[in-house]
Amino acid sequence: MEALGRQQAAQARPGVVNAVVYNKGVRVADIDIDEAGEWARREGHVVWIGLYEPGAALLEQVRKQFSLHPLAIEDAAKAHQFPKLEEFDDSLFIVARTAQMQDGRTAFGETHLFVGPGYVVSVRHGASQSYASVRQRCEARAQHLSQGEDFIVYALLDFIVDNYFPVLDRINEQVDDIEDSILTTAALTQEVIEQLYALRRDLLRMRNAVAPLQDVCRRLERTDIVFINPVMRPHFRDVRDHLRRAAERIDTLRETLAFAFEAGLMNAQMQQTNISRRLAAWAAILAVPTAIAGIYGMNFEHMPELKWAYGYYAVLFVTFSICMILYWRFRRAGWL
Q1: What distance lies between CA 7 and its chain's CA centroid?
Q2: Non-local CB neighbours of 147 within 8 Å, separated by 6+ positions
Q3: C-alpha to C-alpha distance for 243 and 165, rounded to whole angstroms
Q4: Strands (E), 103-243
Q5: How far apart are the C-alpha atoms of 15 and 294, rounded to whole Å?
Q6: 11, 60, 89, 269: which one has the fewest Cβ atoms less than 10 Å from its Cβ?
C-alpha cells in the first residue's frame, strides 16, 4: 500500500512519469525525487526516473539529488539540442531525437538522458512515445536489467531507433503515392510540389537526427567511458547498425524524391514541347492561306488569274492541297 501510494504521488506530480529503484534487476519500490540520490548511492541499486517536459524547479531538484552539471541541466530545459554525448566528471549526458507520425505528418521530439553510477534519468520533450513499454520489458528481463544503468540506456536508445522505422515506412508510402501521381498525371501540380518539399524537409530532419546518434553509439562502444560495462558494448554496436540502416533508407528516399521531381519536370517540359510543336504545325498550315490571300489581296491591276473564269476555284484547290500535304507531313512526324 505504501509503495502504491508513492507511485500515485509520483505520477500525480507534474513532469514526473515514474521514479523507481531496482536491486539486481528486481523492482524494489517507487520513490520520491527527494530520496532518489540516497537510493542511488546504495550498493547494487539503480534508480530510473522518467520525466516529461519538466519545469525548472523539478530539474533543479534532480540536479541536487545526483550532483548533475549545471550546463547539462540547462540543455535539458531548452529541448532544442543537437544529438550528442557529453562526458562530465561522474556522469554522461546524452541527447537523442525522437520521431513519430501525427496526423499524417512527421513530428519530432527529444529525449535527454542523464547517466551516472546508480541512476538513469530520462527527460522527454515534444513528440515521443511513452517509455512505459521499455520499462516493462526491462523489468521482465531481470537478468539483463541487473547489469544496471548500461542496459537501461541501451534499451531506451534501441526503442528510440526502432521507432524511426515505422515513420520511414509511412514516408515510403507517401513517396510511392507521389511517384504514382506523377506517372499517371504526367504533371507537377502545386499540391504535389508542396508534398515533395514537405517530405524532403522531414527526411532532412530525420537525417540530422540519425547521423549524430551514430557517433553517440560509436562513442559508447569505446573503452574509455568508465560507466559502460564492456559486456554492453556489442549492444550499442547493434543500435548503431540499426541507425546505419535507417540512414541508408533516408538517403534512398531522398534520392527517390529527387528523381520524382526531375521526372515531373521532364514530363512538364515534354508537354510544353508537344504543345509548341502543335502550335508551330498549325501556324505553318495557316500560313499558306494567309500568304495566298495576302498576295491576291494586293489589288494589282495585271494579275492573269483575276480574269480567268476558274481562277477562284484553282486558288482554293491549291490552297487546300498544300494545307492537306502539310497536315499529312506534320501528322506523320508526330507533331499533330
Answers
A1: 36
A2: 25, 229, 231, 232
A3: 10
A4: 105-116, 119-126
A5: 87
A6: 89
- Per-residue pLDDT tens for 107-117? 899 999 999 88
- pLDDT value, residue 49: 93
Q: For domain 1-141, give the CATH superfamily.
A: CorA soluble domain-like (3.30.460.20)
pLDDT surpasses 90 at 188: no
- DSSP-derived letter for residue 47 is E
Kindly report the number of other CB atoms within 10 A of residue 2's CB atom: 8
Cα–Cα dist 132/80, whole Å: 24
Does position 282 have pLDDT exceeding 70, yes or no?
yes
Choose which CATH entry (3.40.1350, 1.10.1040, 1.20.58, 1.10.3470) describes domain 272-333: 1.20.58
User: How would you classify the pairing of strands 84-87 and 105-116?
Assistant: unpaired
Helix (H, G, I), strand (E, B) or coil at 328: helix
Element holding 312 (H helix, E strand):
helix 311-333
User: Is pLDDT of 26 > 60?
Assistant: yes
User: Cβ distance 271 to 186 under 8 Å?
Assistant: yes
Domain with CATH 3.30.460.20 in the chain: 1-141
Q: Could you give the strand order of the β-sheet that contains 92-102, starting from the edge strand earlier in sequence?
A: 26-30, 16-23, 45-52, 119-126, 105-116, 92-102, 84-87
* CA 176/CA 186 separation, integer angstroms: 15
Residue type, 238: D
Residue 117 C-alpha cell reads as: 553510477
Radius of gyration of the chain (CA): 35
Domain with CATH 1.20.58 in the chain: 272-333
Burial class (CB in 10 A: 0-12, 13-18, 19+), 53: middle
